[in-house]
Amino acid sequence: MNDLVRVEEVVEQGRGITTLRFRFPGGAPGQFVMVWVPGVDEVPMSLSYQGEMAGITVKNVGEATAALSSLREGDLIGVRGPYGKGWMVPKGRILCVGGGVGMAPLMSALDAVDDPSTVDVVIGARDAGEIIFYERAKERSNDVRISTDDGSRGFKGTAVALAAAMMAEKKYDMVLGCGPEIMLRYLLVACKEAGVRCQVSLERLMKCGAGLCGSCVVDGLRVCVEGPVFFDKQVEGMSEFGRCKRTASGSKTKV
Ligand SMILES: Cc1cc2nc3c(=O)[nH]c(=O)nc-3n(C[C@H](O)[C@H](O)[C@H](O)COP(=O)(O)OP(=O)(O)OC[C@H]3O[C@@H](n4cnc5c(N)ncnc54)[C@H](O)[C@@H]3O)c2cc1C
Ligand code: FES
Fold first, then answer.
1. CA–CA gap between residue 93 and residue 249 (Å, rounded)
2. CA-CA distance, 164 to 182, in Å (whole number)?
3. Which of 36, 43, 200 to mutate to test the pocket of ligand 1 (most atoms within 8 A of CB)?
4. pLDDT of residue 237
5. pTM of the complete model beyond 0.70
6. 210, pLDDT greater than 80
7. Where in the chain are the domains?
């Protein structure tokens, strides 16, 4: 689907993090859309809400995300998609681990679980001001714990350290993780040590979003088609995972 939609609701979610709601039905948990801000740019955004009234949750990091963050109710944006392979939401005990705005695609997984009592959540951020979706996650899970790097709310330390402690405390069948790639790299190690399977959602520079241009390729896999969600076994074999990514000019830079 490719449509010009009107922003119907704007919610300040946390410091520099804004949710925009608009009518755009469809999508599976973990899928993303390409969002066009007229006159600025088109960027990939995970669906943080799915259904008749969709939503994206934007962290202001540059030109396009600043433009999205400044939109108001009634403004128009272009949305095409949904694209990509999202979460395989299994039955059994699940631990969701979100770093910062990485909670966005995890919320669509939480909305899709059959039995919220089987799911625990770690919401990590640099500080209390960047914690998002706490109340919403509580409604869709059994146990939500918070970590902040500076200790301003919840556990003082990383989301991965808290997740590792929870995996030592309880038995899980699957971990779903989204956040900065360096966090995901350590999450994968923690899951391996605990003997728990894991899926992670990756971000790469995207131009077409639909498998045509090759700008998002990591080790031969297109993040926009074969991902953005990958299983542990797939990312373990990626030489670039947790190390480097490509810039708009095609050169490599550290993640
Ligand atoms: C599948 C997918 C889902 C995403 N979901 C979300 C989300 O739910 N919420 C959210 O806030 N962000 C999300 N992102 C990241 C978002 O697309 C980038 O932050 C955005 O494109 C930056 O654009 P900009 O013009 O504001 O920043 P720029 O000025 O272009 O760059 C600022 C920073 O963002 C990085 N970046 C730039 N373009 C991209 C790009 N196309 N893809 C990834 N990183 C980029 C740059 O390396 C730089 O570090 C997602 C990315 C992908 C690939
Ligand atoms: S963004 Fe073009 S192939 Fe993935």
1. 42
2. 15
3. 43
4. 83
5. yes
6. yes
7. 2-83, 94-254
Surface-to-core class of residue 24, CB atoms within 10 Å of its CB (0-12 exposed, 13-18 middle, 19+ buried)? buried
Tokens of 135: 């109340």
Has domain 94-254 been given CATH number 3.40.50.80?
A: yes
Alpha-carbon separation of residue 190 from 151, 183, 186, 219 (angstroms): 21, 11, 6, 23
Length of the chain: 255
pLDDT > 70 fraction of the chain, expressed in percent and rounded:
100
Over the chain, what is the mean pLDDT? 96
Best residue among 41, 205, 224, 230 to mutate for probing ligand 2's pocket (most ligand atoms within 8 Å of CB) is 224
Query: What would be the CATH architecture of the domain defined by 2-83?
Result: Beta Barrel (2.40)
The two structure tokens encoding residue 22: 């608009």
Q: Which of 97, 88, 108 is nearest to 32 (CA)?
A: 108
Percentage above 90 pLDDT, the chain:
91
d(CA 128, CA 229): 27
Alpha carbon distance 247, 235 (integer Å): 20
Q: Whole-angstrom Cα distance, residue 185 to residue 182?
A: 5
